[in-house]
């Protein structure tokens, strides 16, 4: 679970052990401790937030361009300058903004038209908790960064009203096997599927723009010399990226200290999800701008995963709680609290063989039902 855990007020959970320190430690661990590995959750109480005066402004800015290597308008050179502007803009984002930015690369026409036929599309979608004139100032600053070809603005009285307006195919994405090929074991050459890095304010200021271009350079290199380990049938390493800037490192954001969210995640300004890199490319380039990754969106193959998800000190606390509440290790997943810390690659092909014995063992357990009070 990500930063949404800040709004979890109550959890009802069935679990198999009892912590001598009582329920609060388990409640702390479940909010940020990763995955459903603490017990069977039967209900949760989530904090609701009042809609601000003026409602919620929803804005979608779209910018398109090409990978033309010369000085063509909105080509590769323009992208390089844009990422520097984007870095400076990100450092000004405040707690009133909730964003989902996505960067897509279309290589379908490359073989016919070369790099100038490779196109990119930057969709920057966000909500702003309405407060004039802050909203207009924020919007216009982003326009100056992106020079968008399309700007769509709507105002909603509630999030529910927005949900009803979403097209049915809005989040329809092609799914690629994160491994190089079916029935092939994970390795450093495998595509990590959702390689993520948590970007601090300092890294955003000093490293982000250059690293973005390094990752795009990998795409260009794979176009010129296809990579046989890529899950793309053409051997390209392009695809798409998500750039989430709705983090508590933003200006004015509250930073609760009563959850198991890592300090690096808590103070960051971006979670960058690069779905095109191999594990080794992530280690060499992506992870160079941040020591942490997001548990729920990350590479299947990860070295030093305990530190990247939580930091070693925080992980040791989580491990103590896990052993107290689930001593038989009945609730598990890959790279969860209590997994083998030296197991970088996992063994997905043998997981099914272990499932039957785990189900039998779990069925024999007596489950306690705990309710964490608000």
UniProtKB/TrEMBL annotation:
Single GO molecular function: oxidoreductase activity
Pfam families: BBE (PF08031)
Domain Berberine/berberine-like: 302-335
InterPro entries found in the cross-reference section: BBE, FAD-bd_PCMH-like_sf, FAD-bd_PCMH_sub2, FAD-linked_Oxidoreductases_BP
Gene3D superfamilies registered for this protein in UniProt: 3.30.465.10, 3.40.462.20
Keywords: Oxidoreductase
Family: Belongs to the oxygen-dependent FAD-linked oxidoreductase family.
Name of the protein described by the UniProt record: Berberine/berberine-like domain-containing protein
Species for this entry: Vermiconidia calcicola
């Amino acid at each position: 679970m990500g930063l949404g855990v800040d709004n979890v007020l109550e959890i009802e959970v069935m679990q198999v052990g009892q912590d001598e320190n009582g329920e609060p430690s388990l409640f702390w661990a479940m909010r940020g401790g990763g995955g459903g590995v603490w017990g069977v959750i039967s209900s949760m109480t989530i904090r609701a937030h009042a809609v601000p005066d003026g409602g919620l402004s929803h804005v979608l800015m779209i910018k398109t361009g090409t990978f033309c290597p010369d000085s063509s308008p909105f080509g590769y050179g323009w992208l390089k300058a844009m990422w520097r502007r984007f870095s400076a803009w990100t450092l000004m984002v405040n707690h009133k903004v909730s964003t989902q930015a996505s960067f897509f690369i279309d290589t379908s026409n490359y073989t016919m038209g070369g790099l100038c036929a490779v196109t990119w599309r930057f969709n920057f979608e966000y909500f702003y908790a309405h407060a004039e004139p802050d909203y207009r100032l924020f919007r216009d600053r982003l326009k100056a960064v992106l020079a968008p070809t399309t700007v769509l603005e709507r105002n909603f009285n509630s999030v529910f009203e927005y949900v009803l307006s979403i097209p049915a195919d809005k989040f329809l994405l092609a799914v690629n096997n994160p491994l190089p090929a079916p029935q092939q074991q994970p390795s450093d050459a495998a595509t990590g599927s959702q390689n993520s890095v948590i970007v601090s304010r300092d890294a955003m200021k000093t490293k982000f723009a250059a690293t973005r271009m390094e990752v795009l350079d990998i795409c260009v290199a794979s176009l010129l010399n296809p990579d046989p380990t890529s899950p793309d049938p053409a051997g390209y390493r392009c695809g798409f990226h998500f750039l989430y800037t709705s983090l508590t490192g933003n200006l004015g954001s509250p930073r609760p200290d009563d959850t198991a969210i890592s300090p690096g995640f808590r103070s960051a300004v971006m979670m960058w999800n690069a779905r095109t890199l191999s594990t080794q490319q992530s280690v060499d380039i992506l992870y160079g701008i941040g020591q942490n990754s997001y548990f729920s969106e990350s590479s299947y193959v990860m070295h030093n995963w305990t530190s990247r998800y939580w930091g070693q000190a925080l992980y040791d606390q989580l491990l103590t709680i896990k052993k107290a509440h689930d001593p038989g290790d009945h609730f598990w997943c890959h790279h969860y609290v209590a997994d083998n810390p030296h197991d970088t690659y996992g063994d997905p092909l043998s997981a099914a063989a272990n499932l039957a014995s785990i189900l039998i063992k779990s069925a024999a357990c007596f489950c306690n039902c705990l309710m964490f009070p608000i």
